[in-house]
Amino acid sequence: MTGLVIALLLATLTAAAILLSARIPLRAIAPVAAALLLGLAGYAWQGHPGLFGKPVSADTGQAKFDEALAEKRREIGERISSATKWLVVSDALARSGNTKDAANVLQSGLRENPRDPNLWVGLGNALLAHGNGTLSPASDYAFRQALTIDPQSVSANYFYGLALAESGQFERSRDMWLKLAARLPEDMELREELIRNVALINALIERREAMSRGGEQAP
Fold it and tell me: Which Pfam families does the entry mention (predicted)?
Protein backbone atom coordinates (compact mmCIF):
# COMPACT_ATOMS: atom_id res chain seq x y z
CA MET A 1 0.00 0.00 0.00
CA THR A 2 3.01 2.30 0.30
CA GLY A 3 2.92 3.03 -3.40
CA LEU A 4 -0.73 4.03 -3.27
CA VAL A 5 -0.12 6.32 -0.28
CA ILE A 6 2.76 8.00 -2.11
CA ALA A 7 0.58 8.41 -5.21
CA LEU A 8 -2.20 9.97 -3.10
CA LEU A 9 0.29 12.35 -1.46
CA LEU A 10 1.67 13.38 -4.86
CA ALA A 11 -1.86 13.95 -6.16
CA THR A 12 -2.65 16.19 -3.18
CA LEU A 13 0.55 18.19 -3.65
CA THR A 14 -0.19 18.51 -7.37
CA ALA A 15 -3.68 19.84 -6.68
CA ALA A 16 -2.32 22.36 -4.18
CA ALA A 17 0.33 23.51 -6.62
CA ILE A 18 -2.24 24.00 -9.36
CA LEU A 19 -4.53 25.98 -7.08
CA LEU A 20 -1.75 28.23 -5.79
CA SER A 21 0.03 28.83 -9.09
CA ALA A 22 -3.08 29.29 -11.22
CA ARG A 23 -5.16 30.94 -8.45
CA ILE A 24 -8.12 28.67 -9.16
CA PRO A 25 -11.11 29.47 -6.87
CA LEU A 26 -12.29 26.71 -4.57
CA ARG A 27 -15.58 26.33 -6.42
CA ALA A 28 -13.60 25.41 -9.57
CA ILE A 29 -11.61 22.63 -7.92
CA ALA A 30 -14.03 19.86 -8.99
CA PRO A 31 -12.59 19.32 -12.50
CA VAL A 32 -9.06 19.22 -11.12
CA ALA A 33 -10.03 16.76 -8.39
CA ALA A 34 -11.86 14.58 -10.89
CA ALA A 35 -8.82 14.38 -13.18
CA LEU A 36 -6.51 13.47 -10.29
CA LEU A 37 -8.93 10.87 -8.94
CA LEU A 38 -9.19 9.27 -12.37
CA GLY A 39 -5.42 8.98 -12.44
CA LEU A 40 -5.36 7.42 -8.98
CA ALA A 41 -8.11 4.98 -9.96
CA GLY A 42 -6.14 3.89 -12.98
CA TYR A 43 -3.02 3.41 -10.87
CA ALA A 44 -4.91 1.38 -8.27
CA TRP A 45 -6.48 -0.76 -11.02
CA GLN A 46 -3.49 -1.51 -13.24
CA GLY A 47 -0.52 -0.66 -11.06
CA HIS A 48 1.16 -2.96 -8.56
CA PRO A 49 2.05 -0.70 -5.62
CA GLY A 50 2.57 -3.63 -3.27
CA LEU A 51 5.36 -5.23 -5.31
CA PHE A 52 8.96 -4.81 -4.27
CA GLY A 53 11.20 -2.77 -6.54
CA LYS A 54 13.50 -4.69 -8.84
CA PRO A 55 16.72 -3.21 -10.20
CA VAL A 56 17.03 -3.53 -13.98
CA SER A 57 20.39 -3.49 -15.65
CA ALA A 58 20.77 -1.66 -18.92
CA ASP A 59 21.08 -3.72 -22.09
CA THR A 60 24.66 -3.42 -23.24
CA GLY A 61 23.74 -4.48 -26.78
CA GLN A 62 26.50 -7.12 -26.73
CA ALA A 63 25.86 -9.85 -29.25
CA LYS A 64 25.52 -13.35 -27.79
CA PHE A 65 27.63 -16.11 -29.27
CA ASP A 66 25.54 -18.78 -30.94
CA GLU A 67 27.10 -22.09 -29.88
CA ALA A 68 24.57 -24.10 -31.88
CA LEU A 69 25.45 -22.20 -35.04
CA ALA A 70 29.16 -22.75 -34.52
CA GLU A 71 28.58 -26.45 -33.90
CA LYS A 72 26.52 -26.68 -37.08
CA ARG A 73 29.33 -25.00 -39.02
CA ARG A 74 31.86 -27.48 -37.69
CA GLU A 75 29.52 -30.38 -38.35
CA ILE A 76 28.68 -29.71 -41.98
CA GLY A 77 31.61 -27.72 -43.30
CA GLU A 78 34.88 -27.92 -41.53
CA ARG A 79 37.64 -30.44 -41.49
CA ILE A 80 40.94 -30.08 -39.70
CA SER A 81 42.87 -27.75 -41.95
CA SER A 82 44.86 -24.54 -41.97
CA ALA A 83 41.57 -22.68 -41.48
CA THR A 84 40.82 -24.39 -38.17
CA LYS A 85 43.17 -22.30 -36.02
CA TRP A 86 41.64 -19.07 -37.31
CA LEU A 87 38.09 -20.26 -36.75
CA VAL A 88 38.88 -21.43 -33.20
CA VAL A 89 40.38 -18.04 -32.28
CA SER A 90 37.47 -16.23 -33.94
CA ASP A 91 34.93 -18.28 -31.99
CA ALA A 92 36.76 -17.57 -28.73
CA LEU A 93 36.67 -13.82 -29.37
CA ALA A 94 33.00 -13.95 -30.33
CA ARG A 95 32.17 -15.82 -27.11
CA SER A 96 33.63 -12.92 -25.13
CA GLY A 97 31.47 -10.47 -27.09
CA ASN A 98 34.34 -9.13 -29.20
CA THR A 99 32.63 -9.63 -32.55
CA LYS A 100 34.74 -7.03 -34.34
CA ASP A 101 38.02 -8.80 -33.61
CA ALA A 102 36.35 -12.15 -34.31
CA ALA A 103 35.80 -10.95 -37.88
CA ASN A 104 39.24 -9.32 -38.11
CA VAL A 105 40.95 -12.58 -37.18
CA LEU A 106 39.27 -14.33 -40.09
CA GLN A 107 40.34 -11.55 -42.44
CA SER A 108 43.91 -12.20 -41.32
CA GLY A 109 43.39 -15.88 -42.05
CA LEU A 110 42.09 -15.04 -45.52
CA ARG A 111 45.22 -13.05 -46.29
CA GLU A 112 47.08 -16.29 -45.66
CA ASN A 113 44.49 -18.59 -47.31
CA PRO A 114 42.36 -16.50 -49.68
CA ARG A 115 40.92 -19.58 -51.43
CA ASP A 116 39.58 -21.32 -48.32
CA PRO A 117 35.75 -21.38 -48.50
CA ASN A 118 35.45 -22.31 -44.81
CA LEU A 119 37.18 -19.06 -43.84
CA TRP A 120 34.83 -17.08 -46.09
CA VAL A 121 31.79 -18.79 -44.54
CA GLY A 122 33.20 -18.12 -41.09
CA LEU A 123 33.73 -14.47 -42.00
CA GLY A 124 30.18 -14.19 -43.31
CA ASN A 125 28.81 -15.56 -40.03
CA ALA A 126 31.17 -13.39 -37.96
CA LEU A 127 30.05 -10.25 -39.79
CA LEU A 128 26.43 -11.28 -39.29
CA ALA A 129 27.04 -11.59 -35.55
CA HIS A 130 28.84 -8.25 -35.48
CA GLY A 131 25.83 -6.66 -37.18
CA ASN A 132 23.37 -8.32 -34.77
CA GLY A 133 22.01 -10.56 -37.50
CA THR A 134 21.95 -8.00 -40.31
CA LEU A 135 23.11 -9.30 -43.69
CA SER A 136 25.43 -6.43 -44.56
CA PRO A 137 27.08 -6.03 -47.99
CA ALA A 138 30.35 -7.26 -46.46
CA SER A 139 28.71 -10.37 -45.03
CA ASP A 140 26.89 -11.02 -48.30
CA TYR A 141 30.19 -10.69 -50.18
CA ALA A 142 31.88 -13.20 -47.88
CA PHE A 143 29.22 -15.85 -48.50
CA ARG A 144 29.33 -15.24 -52.25
CA GLN A 145 33.11 -15.58 -52.24
CA ALA A 146 32.78 -18.97 -50.55
CA LEU A 147 30.34 -20.06 -53.26
CA THR A 148 32.57 -18.73 -56.03
CA ILE A 149 35.44 -20.84 -54.73
CA ASP A 150 33.29 -23.92 -54.10
CA PRO A 151 29.75 -23.72 -55.58
CA GLN A 152 28.94 -27.17 -54.17
CA SER A 153 29.98 -26.28 -50.61
CA VAL A 154 27.33 -27.58 -48.21
CA SER A 155 28.40 -25.10 -45.55
CA ALA A 156 28.34 -22.06 -47.86
CA ASN A 157 24.94 -22.93 -49.32
CA TYR A 158 23.44 -23.71 -45.92
CA PHE A 159 24.65 -20.61 -44.09
CA TYR A 160 24.09 -18.20 -46.97
CA GLY A 161 20.56 -19.55 -47.27
CA LEU A 162 20.09 -19.09 -43.53
CA ALA A 163 21.33 -15.49 -43.69
CA LEU A 164 19.01 -14.76 -46.62
CA ALA A 165 16.02 -16.23 -44.78
CA GLU A 166 16.74 -14.23 -41.65
CA SER A 167 16.99 -11.05 -43.74
CA GLY A 168 13.57 -11.70 -45.31
CA GLN A 169 14.83 -12.81 -48.74
CA PHE A 170 12.69 -15.92 -48.58
CA GLU A 171 12.60 -16.81 -52.28
CA ARG A 172 16.39 -16.76 -52.66
CA SER A 173 16.83 -18.78 -49.49
CA ARG A 174 14.23 -21.33 -50.56
CA ASP A 175 15.80 -21.82 -53.99
CA MET A 176 19.26 -22.26 -52.52
CA TRP A 177 18.11 -24.77 -49.92
CA LEU A 178 16.03 -26.75 -52.41
CA LYS A 179 19.06 -27.19 -54.66
CA LEU A 180 21.20 -28.19 -51.69
CA ALA A 181 18.64 -30.69 -50.39
CA ALA A 182 18.39 -32.29 -53.82
CA ARG A 183 22.12 -33.11 -53.69
CA LEU A 184 22.10 -34.67 -50.22
CA PRO A 185 21.39 -38.33 -49.39
CA GLU A 186 17.75 -38.96 -48.54
CA ASP A 187 18.56 -40.29 -45.07
CA MET A 188 20.79 -37.37 -44.15
CA GLU A 189 19.53 -35.36 -41.17
CA LEU A 190 20.56 -32.07 -42.77
CA ARG A 191 18.39 -32.83 -45.81
CA GLU A 192 15.37 -33.39 -43.59
CA GLU A 193 16.10 -30.13 -41.79
CA LEU A 194 16.29 -28.25 -45.09
CA ILE A 195 12.97 -29.71 -46.24
CA ARG A 196 11.33 -28.56 -43.01
CA ASN A 197 12.88 -25.12 -43.41
CA VAL A 198 11.64 -24.84 -46.99
CA ALA A 199 8.11 -25.75 -45.88
CA LEU A 200 8.27 -23.03 -43.23
CA ILE A 201 9.55 -20.50 -45.77
CA ASN A 202 6.72 -21.38 -48.16
CA ALA A 203 4.23 -20.75 -45.36
CA LEU A 204 5.85 -17.39 -44.62
CA ILE A 205 5.73 -16.42 -48.29
CA GLU A 206 2.04 -17.35 -48.52
CA ARG A 207 1.30 -15.36 -45.37
CA ARG A 208 3.16 -12.33 -46.70
CA GLU A 209 1.33 -12.50 -50.02
CA ALA A 210 -2.05 -12.89 -48.29
CA MET A 211 -1.34 -9.83 -46.15
CA SER A 212 -0.26 -7.93 -49.24
CA ARG A 213 -3.48 -8.84 -51.06
CA GLY A 214 -5.50 -7.82 -48.02
CA GLY A 215 -3.79 -4.45 -47.96
CA GLU A 216 -4.48 -3.86 -51.64
CA GLN A 217 -8.18 -4.66 -51.21
CA ALA A 218 -8.57 -2.39 -48.21
CA PRO A 219 -10.21 0.97 -49.05
Answer: TPR_16
